[in-house]
Design a protein that fits this description.
Shape: globular
Strand order of the largest sheet: 1-2-5-4-3
Number of domains: 4
Strand content: 15-25%
CATH topology of the largest domain: Alpha-Beta Plaits
Structural class: alpha+beta
CATH class of the largest domain: Alpha Beta
CATH architecture of the largest domain: 2-Layer Sandwich
Number of strands: 15
Radius of gyration: 25 Å
Amino acid sequence: MNLDQVLAEAKKESMPSLKRRRAVALAVENVIQLLEEASKGAKISPRIEIGGSYAHDTWLETETDVDFFLVYPKEVNRTQFEGLGLSLAEAALEGRSPRRRYAEHPYVEADVDSVTVNVVPCYGVTKGEWKSAADRSPFHTKYLEAHLNEGLRSEVRMLKRFLKAQALYGAEIRVRGFSGYACEVLVLKYRSFVELLRSASSWKKGVVISLEGGEENARSLFEGEAFILLDPVDTTRNLGLAVSPAKLAEFVHLSRLFLKKPSLEFFGARQLQPVSAPPGHIKSHTLMLRFAFKDRSEDILWGELWKSANGVAEHLAKDGVRVLRHRVAAERGRVSMAFLVSVEVLPRTLERIGPEIFMKDANERFLAKSNGRSDSWWLGDDMRSHALSKNDMSRPADLLLKYMEDPVTRVGFAKGLAAEAKETHEVLVGREAYSSRRVVDRMALSELAGFRF
């Protein structure tokens, strides 16, 4: 198939079926009735609006989340506003196992007739006078209703399907990919899926993408960011912050692959295939830290997990073990953090590098800390302090075990996870980690070794 044929078929396959459209529409009507009924007895009755991909008509058959916004007067104080909205949503969805979730804002989630429903409180404000993180959402819907046409909606669906297949879709911290709204903004900018890919294939680091101006301000406001995608409703907000540098790099690479050899496979199966059976030299350089945790909001959990894993990786590097790659998985109360490290055996001499000499206070703290535990120091051509000390540990795993004696103080572990991790942790090395049959361990290891050529 040539490019035009691939795009035509992908566009057709990305459309929700008529049967599914009817089912979701009935579920939406049902939820509106439930919310309206619950609002009748409320102290302050909000306006009910539908948002997200359903309201924009850019949803996929496999993406049936529908967002409902409870719009409260801006005079309602913040504590009362959240309590009123969440209580109303829980009352309306009683019997459908409503559960509170926390992202940038608290909301209630439930499943209604095979549709995931998100009920989000927000304020009815004037544009730009945001009081809560959700206040922009009704403006997003109005903006997209004014600028999307049926052709562009089909292009958005294609992009979403492509990103889903390549594990790049979703702004939640667990995924760190492209949000649905980011997809819609990108298609509005480039006017088609394929033109977006053509542009992405030659993006430079720090690219700024905007529909409503603000580029110059964005370069200073988001200095150092790899990807700057301005929200057309609020050009001081970068939609690209949710996208990790690695996911952005994968998108650029996959754009080039698709344009070089277009195929429907890009819309159905991941093209970057993990190394499923790494060779011995990779297995032997693998560390795994695993522990149990108590149930909590996924949004909170994943923030704590990445903070903790990044802290471990940074401190391994300070202790002479460069982390080449690390991955995190969580499933059913268990966590696995997998690290691919540079050495199997720790060096006998450890070099610690301090701040530049111009950073007076920080440099003095470094030298004071090094005095007594280091055997020598010097100032290098990099104008930093360097200190040498004897390393009494022989394996990177020993460092992990040491960290877990006091994970918060030693590696900046998230306080919410520290007690559970300290009490239940295990450290696995090399083949021992790869021989584990635990699902969560296999998930953490699934991409640790990288992709097949």
